[in-house]
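Case study 2.
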Amino acid sequence: MKEFLTVVAISLLTINFSYSQEWYKMPEKTRTRWASFENPEAEKGAGGKENSGAKGHAFDRINAGESVTLLHVDGAGTINRIWLTINDRSPYMLRSLRIEMYWDGSQKPAVSAPLGDFFGIGLGRLVSFENELFSDPEGRSFNCYIPMPFKKGAKIIVTNDSDRDLTSLYYDVDLVKVENHDNNVLYFHTYWHRENPTELKKDYEILPELKGSGRFLGVNMGVLTNVAYEESWWGEGEVKMYLDGDGDFPTIVGTGTEDYIGTGWGQGVFNNRYQGSLIADGEKGEFAFYRYHVPDPVYFTRDIRVTIQQIGGWQKDKVVELLENGTDLIPVSVAGEKGFFKLLDGSSLKITDPNFPDGWVNFYRRDDVSSTAYFYLDSPANNLPELAPVDVRTAKMSKEN
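Prediction:
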């Protein structure tokens, strides 16, 4: 076990920092290539041939129901950067466009996600930001810096699942070609999920049970709060990570949603290297946030499952009012001057009892939650479900830019 983790750690460190190696050293048998519409197969000496070399194919369109190939290369290499922009950047379009990545000739994509969510921000809303893995300099473009190695070939496809044409897509994929990779190099994957709404008293799955060995890289999440809970706080849920055969209880468990992304006592807007909250709009009930486990790797050798509890909180009298209004919730605990009381461990306390202590009441609730999980795996394909259909992805998403 220790030997395996050492190998994984070394290989992933090599991958993660391949693009930031010593600037003055020349790696052996390494060739730089870029793919764009001017040279989608990233071939040597084959770019810019159209229109006598004068910007003949800087962009292309994707009509409704059609696909376009951004990259198709054979051999071994590593994608180090992807840049992309489109003319229709509405939440509806960002959830309708589907980006898929295939490694080593696999028939199942390792990456299959809505375009906007893949590039690091949920809810299809663009804001200016930069972190370790993604950036959007001015709220109009998409950049990804996650290293994506492949041993036999790579293909990237974008499909327009919407009911309207996309007239302009610009991009480039920056990679290096190498002779070969070591056998222990892992493949990059994603998993996108949405529950609208979540189930009461059931944890939301950021990552369903995934078979294999690898590394959980992190997640970006979006939450549209349920108006039935009025101005109550939604983010008391703890993140749980079930590793390598865990049963009912996980090996890793946090203390709350805002705690998981490095803040506390609520969640405003902030943008850090490995953690952030890019949207925190309490009036609209819209929140988008991320946590990337780069300096604190999460490894697994057999399987992994990652969840987050659907728990919120409010003052006791407010929670009582919600219950009186028929709101769907289950009290979990209460914290106040008299102490902390657990309500689900056989307690006879009822929130409607006259002697129920005053304080902050945590409770199970139901909201609209979506997420994109990022991970490395020892296989070019995974055992996870296919991407949800476009109507599930785009529900409640505005069609206006």
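Residues 1-19 have pLDDT under 50 and may be disordered.
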